[in-house]
Fold DUF418 domain-containing protein.
Amino acid sequence: MNLSPTTSSIAEASLSGMPQRGTADHRPISQAERIQTIDILRGVALLGILLMNIPYFSMAERFSEVFQSDPTNVNFWVSAGITILFEGKMRALFSMIFGVGIILFMGRKEKDGPGHDSQSGKALFFRRMGWLVLYGLIDSHVLLWVGDILYYYGIIGIIAFWFRRMKPTYLAMGVPLVAIIGFVASTLFYQNVRNKRMAYLAIQTVQKQGQKLTVAQQQIVKDWKEAQKQFFPNKAEIAEHTRMMKSDDYFTVAKRYRKEVLEQQTVYLIFGLWDPLALMLLGMALYKWGFVTGQWSRRRYWQTMLIGYGLGLPLVTYSFYYGYANIPNTAAFMVYFETHPISWIDLIYPFQRILLVMAHASLLILLIHRAVGRSGRAQGFLNRLSAVGQMAFTNYVMHTLICTFVFNGYGLNQYAEWQFYQLYYLVGAIWVLQLIVSPIWLRYYQFGPLEWVWRSLTYWERQLMRRQVIAS
């Protein structure tokens, strides 16, 4: 497999490689036509996302309170390492590569300018995103993954599509703009919940004085109780949720999350759009600048990496320490919540994340540069990561299938049974499985199974699955 990171004859790629031109729109691009660097970055992001996702498959709410303030506990240090190095960064990298995929998907179709082919490409792209939304609904409401991103990516991809022709400088400006907008929006949301809390505390004073509550005051109590149940579940509620997750009845497990997921996909959707959108636009900018295709000099990648780690690591470490010292559990958070109208520490997150994801990406690209043209284990491992990236859709859904089977009550019923650090034995096993299976599968087939279904539905034509053997 050619690992050249500067391949220029690329047709399209999103979660996987895409078709080429004319009648070839219904053919896959060849391995030589893929941008290997992008596949590898996607593969790393896909595997890395599981580090953050697995606790939400397996652990009860507030699980970290038992070790979050205890540095003598191994779970504390596992959590610290993952939070500092990977939390938010892998999702950011995945979103950036998704944005690259939008440009690559449309690039060949729009090469000759506006016209029939361009309009056809636009229709194909919207159909592609529409199917992705449907897959997300299946992943979240049928397979029962509460943290599904496919639904959001389908919707946000349609929005990002309209920005694809902007100059990279303007595309990159979306990150600081969304960081500011996101902070303002999250602060308004935070203050809305906080106002309910403060009003409730005032009512408690009235109740202690033995006064009868008015209708308006009763509504204040009700509003806070509903907010508390949603955002700050008590031990009894957590126990009930755990019981539901451990039920051997699929519909009982489904009932635990479906309302919450539906609200996230509708009522709170507007809050979840901006961050992935900004990252997709940043990915487009980095593609146009040649960063994600490995076209920068090694010196520039080294500079980006050193700046990213030099600034990002101190910021994220301070943020983690601040949380450890001031907000180690729910009780401490409630005190913080009542005494801090604005959580200024949250401003650190978007900046340290971008610094570190750029540093991580630069490091990976430098490693790819070093391995290109060499034989041996390093190149073989990069080939495996590339295969994982080419099958990212299938591998992402495989995470759902494996984890729900292991942890949900209708499967192996391991929900709330493992120590936090033990979860990462399973993560490692899944990584090994996908690093082995993905290249073997792609040796005989042109796409992962779900990539094949997605492509066939997008073009409304059954795609050729098996690789064609060409006689010499």
Notes: The chain is about 70% helix and 0% strand.
